[in-house]
Design goal:
Largest sheet: none
Structural class: mainly alpha
Oligomer: single chain
Order of helices and strands: HHHHHHHHHHHHHHHHHHHHHHH
Number of strands: 0
Number of helices: 23
Length: 469
């Protein structure tokens, strides 16, 4: 007896296999790093955000969420998650990282489900494949940073808003989306642009097919979370104006690092820290130097859409080259996603496919990332939305070529090549891909663990390092 799976079941089974592969990949990376000198160093060293998250979690455990707020440095959601895991499992680092891997898989499932709803089974499976093998998703699942939680919450907001609209503006989905948006704001406060744009669109829709109660429910859910979670008492993350200026002044290290610069300090002093006055003064800077700022923003645009994953002091390329065999696999990077996404955005818009929410999230989050310093960990919030469009773009190119539509195939190929040229960006002006500072981190890590052989090896690599540019 011959047994055959129906089409939808085959796609569902393939999706389940890909999700299982994803969890295995992420678990392998977590297991590979577990208990190593570098895991301890990057988690506990005061120079890294991970140590501040841990310190805030200890404050919550010992003093409580509200009593300990004046001593916290960062926003509450990720330290709360760490504190919860340590309460249940004790200080077991792998437990939290495996939870992040599960969050990733849940986020991938939502991406697959949304892409299937908007573009069909084939596109959904391609989107899931790109998510599973996207290098940074695997990497950030295995480190003590909040990036996976941030991306999960952003996709959750999209999924809930789409479900709300499909169900005629059901307030239950609106309030759940508001809660997820509030948690997103209290995990990293700078997707505020997204929340504002979502609120504006909800107000516009309230005049048509969505009841005003849905708008009120979204706002109530969002503000309830933001009011319930006390902000940090120590200026560990700085203010939004300081962060904005770090990524936009001409002497701000090309817009990718949080640095103190003369221009930034002058504008902060002249504005008194006021966001509106500071922005007005900054616009005056642009008016006085329009051409240098035009060149600066073009460079920054290439950084945003470039293939290069601009690292923080958690350098993904250091792990890939020196610390992980798992990351040596041929993973997907943004340089593959963006050119196909450009095609998918164009074709989806022309054919009115997808959801207005998908276009809104893609635009708002891209702009929100662009106006602050650009690093891979901040760009990651954009990636699931670009991946959906990339999968749609792959399908559009394939369909045009298969149908023999030479004209359409030519202009889609031209759009793909133009986006490819924009994203082939390897400009790293300070240190190169893996720099001397990265190697010195390994010297400290292995030296503290008593491994003198590796410490001396990386000391030689640090001494021999010559900056690429």
């Amino acid at each position: 007896m011959q047994w055959q799976l129906k089409g939808n079941m085959r796609y569902g089974l393939a999706a389940a296999v890909l999700l299982a592969v994803s969890f295995v990949l992420q678990t392998a990376f977590v297991w590979e790093q577990h208990g190593s000198p570098t895991e301890t160093f990057f988690r506990d060293n005061a120079a890294f955000d991970s140590s501040r998250f841990l310190a805030d979690a200890r404050v919550i455990e010992t003093e409580g969420l509200y009593d300990g707020a004046p001593r916290r440095q960062l926003h509450a959601v990720y330290p709360l998650i760490i504190a919860g895991f340590e309460t249940v499992f004790g200080q077991a680092p792998a437990a939290l990282l495996l939870f992040q891997a599960l969050l990733n898989c849940a986020m991938f499932f939502m991406v697959w489900r949304l892409a299937r709803r908007w573009f069909g089974e084939g596109v959904a499976l391609a989107a899931l494949f790109l998510c599973v093998f996207y290098l940074s998703f695997v990497f950030y699942a295995g480190v003590w940073l909040r990036e996976i939680v941030v991306v999960f919450l952003a996709v959750t907001v999209l999924a809930l808003l789409d479900e709300m609209e499909r169900r005629g503006g059901r307030w239950q989905f609106a309030v759940a989306a508001g809660v997820a948006a509030g948690l997103l704001m209290e995990t990293r406060p700078y997707p505020i642009l997204l929340v504002l744009v979502v609120a504006a669109l909800l107000l516009a829709l309230a005049r048509r097919q969505i009841a005003a109660s849905a708008v009120a429910a979204f706002a109530a859910g969002c503000f309830a979370v933001m009011m319930a979670l006390p902000g940090p008492g120590v200026a560990g993350e700085g203010g939004p104006l300081a962060h904005f200026l770090s990524g936009n002044v001409l002497d701000g290290a090309y817009g990718y690092l949080w640095l103190t610069t003369p221009t930034k300090e002058r504008l902060l002093a002249e504005s008194g820290g006021g966001a509106v006055k500071g922005l007005w003064l900054f616009l005056g800077e642009i008016a006085h130097q329009p051409l240098p700022y035009a060149a600066f923003y073009f460079k920054k645009l290439r950084m945003l859409f470039g293939d290069f994953a601009i690292p923080s002091n958690y350098n993904i390329y250091l792990f890939k080259e020196e610390l992980s065999s798992v990351l040596h696999a041929p993973f997907v990077t943004f340089g593959l996603v963006f050119p196909f996404a450009a095609v998918g955005l164009w074709e989806g818009w022309r054919g009115r496919r997808g959801s207005r929410w998908l276009y809104l999230f893609t635009f708002a989050l891209t702009l929100g990332v662009f106006i602050f310093p650009i690093q891979e960990r901040y760009r990651l919030i954009m990636v699931p939305f670009f991946i959906i469009f990339a999968a749609a773009g792959m399908a559009a190119l394939y369909d045009s070529l298969r149908a023999g539509n030479a004209r359409k195939g030519a202009y889609l190929s031209a759009l793909f090549l133009a986006a490819l040229l924009l994203c082939r960006f390897d400009y790293w002006p300070l240190t190169g891909i893996v720099g001397a500072a990265d190697y010195r981190n390994l010297v400290i890590a292995y030296g503290a663990a008593g491994d003198g052989v590796k410490a001396r090896y990386y000391e030689k690599k640090a001494a021999a390092f010559v900056p690429a540019r």
